[in-house]
Hints:
By secondary structure, this protein is α+β, with helices and mostly antiparallel strands. The chain has helices spanning about 15-25, 45-55, 60-65; strands at about 5, 70-80, 80-90.
Amino acid sequence: xxxxxxxxxxxxxxxxxxxxxxxxxxxxxxxxxxxxxxxxxxxxxxxxxxxxxxxxxxxxxxxxxxxxxxxxxxxxxxxxxxxxxxxxxxxxxxxxxxxxxxxxxx
Length: 106
């Protein structure tokens, strides 16, 4: 039987510092004139998001909010990848007979 264990999200400070360094060291490409969204997100949007992540986003606040939810992890065997630890949140609806939802990210 697969074990399901409680999980607490805790990203190490060193990992957040490394992300900050990577954002600081980003070399942005040139952008084609009037390309719009034809070749991906406009460079101005990417630069704005990068600045937001560097200067304004509070990961520890987000982490605390995520940890208020019932977090768990379980190992799942995936062909070609071995066993992966999968993190999930299991929150029952307060509505009787509600349709269960599964959101996945990767």
